[in-house]
Each structure stands twice: as structure tokens, then as C-alpha cells.
Write a structure and sequence with these properties.
Blueprint (H helix, E strand, L loop, with lengths): L4 H6 L1 H20 L7 H28 L3 E5 L3 E6 L5 E6 L2
Antiparallel strand pairs: 1-2, 2-3
Helix pairs in contact: 2-3
Length: about 100
């Protein structure tokens, strides 16, 4: 089965996936602002861990149904889901 990215991302599963990845990125970014092991840091890392666990389930479902393995990536310029060879992006969000 071929993955229609735009159609998939408009489904409930796809939109929840995008929200999960955005939350993961925000939590990782926010944790950098707090002192290591402060309560705020721990809260953001817990959220990031939860998002990562959710992502593992999404990743497995996409691989099972579409035969594509995407990976979470983030830099100072963007974040998103991309194949290992960076040839295929499920989605990419550029930072403002």
C-alpha cells in the first residue's frame, strides 16, 4: 500500500502524530532552558519520554501498513519525520 502523505496527515491518526512530534520537540527544547534536574526540567523530560514512547507506536504502525521507516529529527532550523537516507520526509517543520 502506498502512503499518500497529505491524506494520511489529515486523518485523526496523522494529525495526532504531528501533534505528538511537535510536543516532543517543544519538550526537548524547553528542557534545555531549565537547570538540570529542576522540577521544570524533570517535567519536560517526562513529557519528552512520553512523546517518544507514543512515537515508537506510530513508527511501528507506519512501517507495518506502508513499509516505510521514518525517524524523528531535529536541528536548530527544523524538526520532522524523515527516512534514514533523508530522501523522503513525511513532514518537516521549519522554525521561524
Amino acid at each position: 500500500m502506498k502512503l499518500n502523505k497529505e491524506k494520511f496527515l489529515k486523518t485523526e491518526l496523522g494529525s495526532e502524530l504531528k501533534a505528538c512530534i511537535a510536543s516532543w520537540d517543544q519538550s526537548l527544547e524547553a528542557s534545555r532552558k531549565y537547570e538540570y534536574y529542576s522540577e521544570e526540567y524533570k517535567r519536560e523530560r517526562k513529557t519528552a519520554a512520553w512523546c517518544q514512547a507514543q512515537w515508537e507506536v506510530y513508527k511501528m504502525a507506519i512501517r507495518q501498513f506502508f513499509g516505510i521507516e521514518y525517524n524523528f529529527t531535529r536541528t536548530e532550523e527544523y524538526y520532522g519525520l524523515v527516512t534514514e537516507d533523508e530522501a523522503d520526509w513525511l513532514f518537516k517543520v521549519c522554525r521561524a
